[in-house]
Design a protein that fits this description.
A hairpin with a 5-residue loop joins strand 24 and strand 25. With 652 residues, the protein is mostly beta strands.
């Protein structure tokens, strides 16, 4: 469902008291007539997609960092598997390799393990424990190359080296040892170009240089800075099947280089001289048939450049003079370049470029003045570009643009007032965004339908229910889409309220009202239809949900009785479900002496029906006499129930 761009929240038990006022949340007006974002899970890391489902690493506050999955709804968001129940685990480095998820797990006791998953608990399993008995040296740089997984790890005898895996224990092996003298730094910037893996690695002879591997042969591509000095290649990028990167050959300084694995050459000496002092090309970003990057040519400061088949040229001198601060966050959004830049007048604001000088311009001065709105996270969804910016009034919030100044505006003030919601777009599918943001006190993974024309709130989800047959109550777990107030109403049940601060599960205890208690006392059960309404803290009320629930209590059970003709009494054996008090009294014409008994726990209690003086006199005359009695049972905590029986007293 979602494409990668870059909690359930911990449950709270909220039991409504007998006399409680409704929790008041005042809805806040917002500019766009669109749906509010809905919290669907805890904050996400390393989000990837497999087969239309978003997978990510998250911590729900109970299980530690674990693998989660989501279809974009709260009901469809859950932890895949608690990898080591009872232990605090740390999962990281999630990557999709041809439909299989790979990630590393550290539990602090038994090393760093490579795991894989197909998204199900049964299909989530250990591949191999790379460094047994050690909690140090977590593997990193998981990279796919031609359907195989490559990564950097250290085992019990070597430093950080290049490994690969096919998803089996036997197929998870060390690829090569580039530095036998226990390399603690290890390969860096793993980058796939076709079926070849390129990376920056070092040995004592060549320093840190460009290497390549096909999984079998691992070789030095070129000693760019000959000898033990290092050219230290960085920003490795696949551009049209050729590797481009930043390297320093010791003569030209840090410049743009390219390599096809055999021929490795300097693309252009942009800032002539070894002492240029610059960092060289950075933020290498491919947009269509052009490679964009930032660098300093020694004249214009750090500015936006491009390279293609026609050559390598400055795109535009955005900040005049040598003090160019450099564009940042270069992003390909649907075939057009978006980035952040400071032209010396407007501060850091959103810019866009088609690769030409005239086609490179300020998108909008969102926060007028020199401070800038500091935008970030450009993302395409539903034909528009979304990003985060601070206009100085609403805080850091979500903005939308059609690529023109007039079509760039605040999309939604998600967390009104203060510092804003600080949204980060993690994935997009069509018009739906998955974001990590904060609304009020609620931080986590949220879903937002940007194409919705009405502000709607999904209804609550009625989850499990628990019946207390002693108290006659029903506790319902209610899932809420965001923070707000739940109201429950219905015949024979007290109206209840419960509040949630965030998307959560509220446990609402429902109790019979006076009429309901009367039914329980005599009939011991009743069924009623309850209405669950939800008012979010921000946004319109949700549609109500109805469901039938049965309220019941377990009365005392009369097991048997036995008449005693010699004295005219009758013994009744009563089984009680829990500790409490039994009372027996006459309700008919002929009286019997009232008797009470206490039970400390569940079991059988013996009661004796004894006639009053008048009843005993009549019994001696008739020898048989029917009496009507009411048996009442009051548990230690719960509802008093009663039942009426007719017994025959016998006297010879």
């Amino acid at each position: 469902m979602f494409g990668r761009i870059g909690a359930r929240a911990r449950g709270a038990t909220l039991v409504a008291a007998l006399a409680v006022s409704a929790v008041s949340f005042a809805p806040v007006a917002h500019a766009a007539a669109t749906s509010r974002p809905l919290q669907i899970g805890p904050s996400a890391q390393d989000l990837v997609t497999v087969g239309g489902t978003a997978y990510f690493i998250a911590d729900d506050g109970v299980h530690g960092n674990q693998l989660w999955r989501s279809n974009g709804t709260a009901a469809g968001t859950s932890m895949v598997k608690d990898i080591k129940p009872g232990a605090v685990t740390t999962a990281s480095g999630l990557i999709d390799v041809d439909g299989t998820l790979f990630f590393f797990v550290r539990d602090g006791t038994s090393g760093n393990k490579l795991w894989k998953s197909d998204g199900t608990p049964a299909g989530t399993s250990l591949v191999k424990n790379i460094n047994q008995g050690s909690s140090r040296g977590l593997p990193y740089a998981l990279t796919e190359v031609a359907g195989a997984l490559y990564f950097v790890a250290k085992d019990s005898t070597r430093g950080f080296e290049l490994w690969k895996s096919d998803g089996t224990k036997a197929g998870t092996t060390l690829v090569a040892v580039t530095d036998p003298a226990s390399d603690e730094r290890g390969p860096q910037d793993l980058t796939a170009v076709g079926s070849t893996l390129y990376f920056n690695d070092g040995d004592a002879t060549h320093g840190y240089e460009l290497w390549k591997s096909d999984g079998t042969d691992t070789t030095l591509v070129k000693d760019i800075d000959p000898g033990s000095d290092s050219s230290d290649p960085t920003n490795l990028t696949d551009f049209a099947g050729t590797l481009y990167f930043n390297a320093n050959d010791g003569t030209h300084g840090a410049e743009l280089w390219s390599s096809d694995g055999t021929d490795t050459t300097l693309v252009k000496d942009i800032d002539p001289g070894v002492g240029n002092g610059g960092r060289g090309p950075e933020e290498l970003t491919v947009v269509g048939n052009e490679l964009y990057f930032t660098t300093d040519d020694g004249t214009h400061g750090t500015e936006l450049w491009r390279s293609d088949s026609a050559g390598t040229t400055l795109v535009k001198d955005i900040t005049s003079g040598t003090a160019g601060r450099g564009p940042q966050d270069l992003t390909d959004v649907a075939g057009r370049l978006y980035f952040v830049a400071d032209d010396g007048t407007h501060g850091y604001e959103p810019w866009t470029s088609d690769g030409s000088t005239n086609g490179t311009s300020l998108l909008k001065d969102i926060d007028p003045g020199s401070s800038g709105s500091v935008p970030n996270g450009f993302t395409a969804a539903g034909g528009s570009v979304y990003f985060t910016a601070d206009d100085g009034t609403h805080g850091s919030e979500l903005w939308r643009s059609d690529g023109t100044p007039g079509g760039t505006a605040l999309f939604q003030d998600i967390d009104p007032g203060g510092e804003g919601s600080h949204p980060t777009v993690l994935a997009a599918k069509g018009s739906t965004l998955l974001l990590d943001l904060t609304q009020g006190a609620c931080t986590g993974l949220w879903s937002l339908d940007t194409a919705a024309t009405e502000d709607t709130t999904p209804p609550v989800r009625l989850l499990s229910s628990t019946h207390d047959v002693t108290a006659g109550t029903v506790t319902v777990d209610v899932g809420t889409p965001t923070g707000g107030r739940i109201t429950v109403s219905g015949a024979d049940v007290q109206k209840r309220w419960a509040g949630t601060g965030c998307a959560d599960t509220a446990s609402v205890e429902l109790r019979p009202n006076k009429a309901g208690l009367a039914i329980l006392r005599s009939k011991h059960r009743f069924t009623t239809t309850l209405t669950f309404a939800f008012q979010p803290s921000i946004g319109p009320a949700a549609a109500s949900v109805q469901r039938k629930y049965t309220f019941e209590v377990t009365p005392a059970k009369i097991v048997r009785s036995e008449a005693h003709p010699k004295n005219g009494t009758r013994t009744v054996w009563v089984q009680v479900p829990s500790g409490g008090r039994l009372a027996l009294a006459a309700t008919g014409t002929w009286g019997v002496k009232k008797v009470t008994r206490s039970a400390l726990h569940a079991g059988t209690v013996k009661l004796t029906i004894t006639p009053t003086r008048a009843t005993a006199h009549k019994l001696r005359q008739r020898h048989h006499l029917k009496v009507r009695v009411r048996l009442s049972y009051t548990p230690a905590q719960g509802v008093t129930t009663s039942q009426t029986r007719v017994y025959t007293l016998v006297r010879k």
